[in-house]
Protein: DUF4892 domain-containing protein
Organism: Metapseudomonas resinovorans
Amino acid sequence: MRLTFLAGLLLAASAQAADLPDSHDLAALPRFPHAEITDFRESPDQERVYPQSAIRRISNQLRMERKVDAEGRQTSVTYRLPTDHSSNEAFDRARRDLLEGGAELLYWCQGRDCGSSNLWANAIFGNSKLFGPDEQQAYILLRLAEPRQDSLLALYSITRGNRRAYLHAEQLDANAPLGELLPTPDTLMRELKSSGELHLARLPDQPSEAWATLLGRCLNLDSTLRISLAGAGAEAWREALVGQGVRAARLELGEGREPGLHLNLLR
């Protein structure tokens, strides 16, 4: 028993020693088991651009259709993942942990849909270790839950050509209120199909035009899906979505009167 306890202490100490000195995890993101910090940066005042679309270089200029601009305190952590786990596994666990903690999804892309990994690694995150095959990358941008609603968290994962897997996490605590930030329709559809549900806890009972348009575009990306709507304003949201061209036969009213809007995929 004692030898087992001592062995556990030695393993924990060796794992800690593998991290860069003076580095630490982000409070909002649990560490993937046995991951090691290979890069750590902090800046008290940083201007950042976070894409909400694929990125391209055209005429030597970085181009993206949508983005979020913010300025504030930045903390970034790059983890090297254990050899028996993939970058997709770590990315999916981190995404689920953040969403379960109340974070709001703003953008999510996978593989070649994200654009060039070379641009993500060097132009966006400034870390060449994150460069790998385009099909092996994933990126997500989230807004943290209250009372940290003015903080953004970006995740990028990659499995390099040498099969080394990395997860990069970057948090920016904005100096000024972020205001309303809307996700993209394809991002919401990706999450709906992946988890089978969307929890939009901050939506009011009375539909807003911007969100009704957004959800209508999302649901019309795949007209074969049937959805159950729940929440205190579910009936009003159903009418608003029908007004956006979503067929009424696809929308059912579910149980539950809690705040916000909850969409569940009907199998």
User: Anything to note?
Assistant: Helices lie at 2-18, 87-100, 117-124, 185-195, 209-219, 234-243.
